Input
Amino acid sequence: FIVTGASKGVGRFVAKSLLDAGAYVAMVSKNKLLLDSLARNYPGQAFPFAYDLSDPDELNICFKKVVTTKN
Output
């Protein structure tokens, strides 16, 4: 799964719910610290990507990194 806005609010809730259910989750948000704090609890299952998806260049970079990440 890919969850955007995963560092807080509804996005974090969705990411955490998926992770708790055993899913592999690519979590995307601008806030690396908050993403990393969640990912630490789900090693090998949660994959944090700190990008600003409103920037087309960052969106392209993020997409490429997500699709080439194992799991």
User: Anything to note?
Assistant: Helices lie at 9-20, 32-39, 56-68. The chain is about 45% helix and 20% strand. The first strand starts at residue 2 and ends at 4. Residues 21 and 60 are 29 Å apart (CA to CA).
